[in-house]
Amino acid sequence: MKKKHYSRRKFIATVSIGSIGAIAAGSISPFKNISFVESSNADKLAILGGTPVAPNKVWPDWPYVDHEMINQISKTVRSGIWSRIQSQTGTVPTFEKEYAALMGTKRCVATGSGTQALSSCVEAMGIGAGDEVITSPYTDMGTVSSILTARALPVLADLDPESYQLDPADVERKITAKTKAIMPVHMMGQPCDIKSIMSIAKKHKLKVIEDACQAHFAKFEGKTLGTIGDVGCFSFQSSKTIACGEGGAVIGNDEKLMDLAFTVMMNGSAKITGTKYRMNELEGAILLGQLNGAKERFNLRNRNAKYLSSKLKGFPGLVPQKLYAGTDSGSFYLYPMSYKKEHFNNADRSKFLKAMQAEGISLSPYIANGLHREPWTDYIMNLKEYKKMYSPDRLNKYREDLNLPKTDQVCEEMVMIWASGPLLGSQSDMDDIINAIMKVYDNRDQLHLI
Predict the structure, then answer these.
(1) Secondary structure (3-state) at 274
(2) Which CATH number fits domain 4-61+294-367+411-449: 3.30.360.10, 3.30.1490.20, 2.60.40.1170, 3.90.1150.10?
(3) Residue 111 vs residue 28, higher pLDDT
(4) Hey, which of 247, 264, 440, 448 would disulfide with 236, CB 3.0 to 4.6 Å?
């Protein structure tokens, strides 16, 4: 049989990664009828003088901007209506109606940030001093801040290290008589094990506040994230897949609860305290201007993420985030993977990342330390309010429970693509990512030279 001639790069792009894993394991040998045509630098990492896989790589811009958005902003500026209290038909009230319809809920309350959305829900549920809320240590500080501002105790449960999501078993272990709610986080925009979380919440009569700040439009078993718990919260910060610089939203179907969240956002009333968490009309204009194409961009991210995962299937060196059974789609705010250094000659993650950057593909860690390792935990335990509200035994137990080894593992292994813009690229762009990964893997014996 006539041999086919491939460059290694073309071969990697053509053969499935599952096959490559089998090749590495020695279970198959596809090289029988293939000879490689090597360039002078094909077997040399770019950081050591080789030719980069994707030199001068340019990704789609983010945040997203188009003429419709600019027209909405211009129209709002000229109108002089810059605060939602000036008009019941302004951009913010209009956005609330349109976003609720898109998400499939009765109500939406827009806020100035995702943190404010979460805080509005905590206050609306009457959670406060002496209460406990269980949440994730692997998230933005805003998640925890929304609990702290109510002077409640954020109880941190450990993770499933393959999904980077809350481990429901540890959530249930952390429930006490003072637990009032669970605040699961849909990390990277993918559904957490929300089915198990809801079952636990029902069993223990707890509220569920979905932190879906990264998870716009994602679905689990046909239900949009943010609509499964009692309320769902979103962020529109500039890196998110729907963005307006800052901004947030609460969605839900419980009219009484949503009325309370609205009142908290509008700085309170005689029946409930609140702060001024209002979104401004210019942010509403930016959001309205991009909603028409938001689902299309969401679908493209999902297609590209699915393609990347198919190429990485069976490859032991980088393992994509586990998605739970029932996951229909994710926002893919980030595309994360676990770096398994034992498959890269035990090279430190930092060396792998430097090698990838030199090949033209920038990957990065995400959260350096879980929130359980940050100093706010000592700070609150020394506050007189917390010493008054919680017994010494409870605070000592709280400190002991900050040992979260699975979260530490995730922080040590995580590498990711900031996906809001890059996952809007072409399939050829996705091939560049895979080819760069496989080139570094193929030349992993050189990583110690970096």
Answers:
(1) coil
(2) 3.90.1150.10
(3) 111
(4) 247
Of 15-24, 101-110, 388-397, give the lowest mean pLDDT range.
15-24
SS3 content of the chain, % helix, strand, coil (to 5): 45, 15, 40
pTM of the model: 0.90
Residue type, 117: A
pLDDT of residue 41: 55
Are 153 and 202 contacting, i.e. CB atoms less than 8 angstroms apart?
A: no
The two three-digit tokens of residue 273, written as one number: 């305290």
Rounded Cα–Cα distance for residues 86 and 398 (Å): 46
Report the C-alpha gap between 450 and 438 in whole angstroms.
Answer: 17
> Letter for the amino acid at 60?
P
HSE of 283 in the Cβ direction (CA atoms, 13 Å)?
24
Cβ 344 vs Cβ 317: under 8 Å: yes
Q: 3, exposed or middle or buried, with CB in 10 Å at 0-12, 13-18, 19+?
A: exposed
**Look-up of token digits 């000036």:** 86
Beta strands in 267-382 (DSSP E): 318-320, 327-329, 334-339
Question: pLDDT digits over 31-84, tens only?
Answer: 333 333 333 356 799 999 999 999 999 999 999 999 999 999 999 999 999 999
Report the CATH architecture of 67-292: 3-Layer(aba) Sandwich (3.40)
Q: For residue 239, count CB atoms less than 10 angstroms from its CB and return exposed for 0-12, middle for 13-18, buried for 19 or more.
A: middle
Residue 415: strand pairing partners = 337
